[in-house]
Amino acid sequence: MGLPCPLSPRHGVAVPTRPFLLLPFNPLSLTLASIVSIPDERGPFVEPPADTQATFGQMPAIAPAAAIDPNNPPWGIAAGILTWVGSVVLLIGIGILFIIPYIASNFKGRGKEELTQFLTTDKTAIFLQILSALPAHLLTFVIVWAVVTHFGKRPFWKSIGWSWSKGFGFWKSAGLAVGLLLLGMGITKIVGGGETSIDQISHSSAASRYTLAILAGLTAPLIEELVYRGVLYSALQKVAGMLWAVIIVSVLFALVHVLEYYNNVGVIMVISLLSVCLTLLRAYTGRLLPCFIVHLVFNGIQAVIIIIEPFLPQSAPEQKAPVVAMLWRTVRHLF
User: Fold this and answer.
1) DSSP states along 53-102
2) Contact 65/158 with Cβ under 8 angstroms?
């Protein structure tokens, strides 16, 4: 996540950032207004027979769970795109709201360069920028809920595809995540790259490090999967087909993170690989839960490293056998 807003996990953890790219509109009101105006083209509710019409005070009849298809959602492409835009703008807007009061009372310099230096070196400024992502994620979940349920008129988890695919359960998902992580280790070891903002965050303060670990290991995988491969992918697939849906979602997901890792080619390659694999998995399984588990394990392992790294002995490679030392250096290089 770039240095103007150090809200990114260490090498390869996928968390959307760069909250200081201000966009001139309110994402929450715009998205919700669009949702309300979008007709409910297809939902799990069906018109009951005339002789079973619900009277005042009775619950209306609904279709069985089997009628809910996450690959043919009732929301349209406009709602999908605006949900994605809203998620990005919320990170930007709330990040600005969090940091402006602190800048006004503590920043004594002048000019863009001095402000950038302040935002990327001051411990409190860094912490506030990271902390702002938590309410942004919460409000993004509210937007996703409103789109998927049509303000509570449809079941959320079934509509979004929160279930396992036949033949692709938890262990396959977790195994894929570990495989991608090991492959990412190899890529960053071979290609390399410059220091990312995660290094500054980890060294700034314990509060920033722990908050970052929570974002990377818990909230980011959930919110990103709901937005990208939940709402956006299913809407695009219905309109543009599976191929274009995979391409567009993969590019958007990678682009948001690539902007933060512009100085590290190895990490950009890992993020792009993760983006394509997650979206292909969504297309292959037709479900969102496997994508979430892959993302959760991929980020979660790195979140643990973020927390424990300061407590690990820095001289470990010289004190261990050659093979162990090599593995230790590889892990430290990636994380």
Assistant:
1) ---TTSPPP---GGG--TTS-SS-HHHHHHHHHHHHHHHHHHHHHHHHHH
2) yes
CB within 8 Å of 262: residues ≥ 6 apart: 2, 268
Helix (H) or strand (E) holding 285: helix 265-285
What is the tens place of the pLDDT at every residue in 78-94?
999 999 999 999 999 99
Phi-psi region of 288 (alpha: psi -120 to 50; beta: other; left: phi over 0): alpha
Report the alpha-carbon distance of residue 81 to residue 277 in Å, rounded.
21
Q: What is the pLDDT of residue 12?
A: 58
Q: Which two tokens stand for residue 51?
A: 């002789």
In tens, the pLDDT along 175-222 reads 999 999 999 999 998 998 777 777 778 788 999 999 999 999 999 999
Whole-angstrom distance, CA of residue 7 vs CA of residue 211:
10
Integer Cα distance of 118 and 252 in angstroms: 30
Q: Are 86 and 143 in contact (CB under 8 A)?
A: yes
pLDDT at 67: 76
